[in-house]
Structure prediction request, 875 residues.
Amino acid sequence: MDPLGRERAPDIARVEAQLAKMWRGASDADHPVTRASTLNLIVVCSDEPGELQAVTDLVARVAETEPGRTQVVCFPAAGAGAGVADEGVEAFVSSHCHLGPGGKQICSEQITLESRGSGHDLLPATLLQLLEGGLPIYTFWRRDLREHEALARALLEISDRFIVNSGERRDPARALAGLAEIVDDADRAQAADLTWERLECWREALASFFDGPLLRPGLERISELLLVGGGPAAPGKPTAAAAYLAGWLASRLGWSRDASGTWRRGDGAEVAISFAAATELPAGDLGAAEIRTELPGTTARLVAQRTDPAADIVRLSVECAGSCPLPWKIQLPARDDAALLCGLLQRSRSDPLFQAALEGAARF
Amino acid sequence: VGNQRIVEENPLRVGLRRDLVAEPCSMVIFGASGDLTRRKLVPALYNLRLDGLLPGGCAVVGAARSEMSDESFSRSLREGIEAHSRRKLDESLWEELSSSISYATTANSAEGYRKLGQHLDRLDRERGTGGNRLFYVSTPPSAFPGIVERLGAAGLNRPGKGGSWARIVLEKPIGHDLDSARALNRAVNDVFHERDVFRIDHYLGKETVQNLMVFRFANAIFEPLWNQKYLDHVQLTVAESIGIEGRGRYYEEAGTTRDMVQNHLFQLLCLLAMEPPASLRPDAIRDEKVKVLEALRPVPPEAVGSTTVRGQYADGVVGGERVPGYKQEPDVAADSRTETYVAVRMFIDNWRWAGVPFYLRAGKRMPKRVTEIALQFRDVPHRLFESTVAPNTLALRIQPDEGINLRVEAKSPGPKMRVHPVGMDFRYGTSFGQQPPEAYERLILDAILGDSTLFIRRDEVEASWRYIDALEQGWHGGGDRAALPEYAAGSWGPAEAQQLLARDGREWRRP
Prediction:
């Protein structure tokens, strides 16, 4: 609060003036700087230690291919930052530049908003006023969805895409349930999840088991599914990645959950789904998937497993009677959060597969 | 069709990036000990496996006249991957891949091909390749007819039971003139149905070449300008900084016109100039490409001298190093009349392109390696500004630094109305954050999938030779008296090439 008791919000005109000054000073005749802007990105930080630096690094990476104005919202702990008031919103401007074609510097801008105490209530309006007009708005929400819920709701209303990374949340089940809820409620924003995006190669791997005529009949006869995920999960409960993969299989293959909580195929037979956690794997990632299925006159065990926990090579193998396909290996693409985020920023269409998988994932 | 059926039946494939999947097959490489196999084919296969685009059962069979053990062949392929793959060799993946590699001696005999057939049958049983065969012929062209004939005699051209397939991939050059191309095509089509023949031009596997179609037909703003009404002229450049790299014998026979113009440059020309196809079906696209070649204005022999320039590189400096002239290269005749540079002015006689000159040039020992298409727009109809206004140019860079640049005029900051050109750039590497895969990866996968869109159809080959034959006739018909000026290695070609455009009031771009 200021001395008159008003909540302290950043002066928007002053922030814009600071940005203009920053760009004027950045260029000279020998080293021209081009400011590029194709989107608005709003990143809401978590309270993890080092989060602001991690987000700033992420924004710098994203700006290399998706230049734009990024607003980073963080919530410093009370008393953090010498000489900073305990209430209100403080704004800081900075830029991210990289060498573009022809040796030109291509630059994006970052506005960091530090919110304290009653400043939280001012955030929605502040963010709205600092948006660049006419450009799409993407929000990357890196907290639990039930924290700062009013802000989350406000951003859902203005965003074209609302992105989370549920694999990094301490309680994946809660994260998925919260996401499923906002997918239902949101009128405008399309929800997306980096954890789901990271699974594309695993979906490819599982699909490839059933491309050939030998195993194809087994797709409707899956009886067991075991998924090993990395990161936090309660015993016997899935990680977010495992829940998504199970949800995806359920939605594609028409499995449903009965009143007793048992998953059943379209023909009524039970599908035993179990989960294990692998602590050595990064949160949000997957370590292995195992499927047991019935083939005419026999059963088959299909395993997709990293060659070791840190490896990006997955070995796919089939155990069955008769002439089984030979094992093969694939490489998981190295796609970090920045790469996944860029992929989502480039895509404009909604993803019905994701929505169906999320619906199933939220039920595990 | 077989691949399509599988996808439609697998509901897990819906929405995945790969909506078509390759079936297990045996890929038989003729010319297995050649440079192309080590430098391009095997690294491509390795990367396809790494990306999970080839199923585990796929087998690689080297086939040649001479004896070689599976181990030796496998070792040479490993060296090829280590030296030329865009991604590092992973030991565990190599271990698995090497188990799929074998070698078969054909001895150029019926018996050798019968044994090859038995070998493939065994792979069908052991690896589940299901009778699917891809024969990749990367031998010298003179060996093509014999290989094709013996494959036919051994019955290896026929699909097996249960919808399996047998396809053949042919490396360029397809003939050295129209007659030889026709003869080769006849020999191939006597054995393989045209739908199973995949004539490769690796330029078509480049992402930027494929992007030509996307750029033209997925953007509403460019296609309306893509015609004689708005374009002044078009330049196509394929420049190489290297010389003939020890291929003197081949180059003496071919020359730049046969080596680059008949295939790479004409393919670029087709994609650039064709009408929008009705669909993305392979034949819909190839029909439109053929129409471009058939609309090329014929050049009578007496006009060849005024519409083309040939040149041969002399010694000079490239990349800071002194290099010898063409005649000093190994296996090149001291009085060689082979061109290492060619520039052609051509016209496409149709409604869209009437009167628009297309300037094509290709050369060796140029200052740098670059492949580029540049469309120069007409000048503004009335000049308002005092300073020189350069026409807008749209440059499509095929390699290296794949991308697109649009040059427009803008006002320089300051009190005066000064006009200055600025470039708007799109670069593949920066815009998509990833380097595109190698051309051979895409093409081999497409051949296995049976998608012939990026391969050249028989009539395309023959139409392009028809035009080239007319040029050759003009150059050599009167006893090879056509001018063949020298140019210094490291320069942009002979002065006569500059004059070719200067006569039209134009000049070559400096890429």
Summary: The interface with chain B takes residues 64-65, 100-102, 200-201, 203-208, 210-214, 216, 219, 249, 252-253, 307, 313, 315-316, 323, 325-331, 333, 339, 342, 351-353 of chain A (CB under 8 Å). The mean pLDDT of chain A is 85.
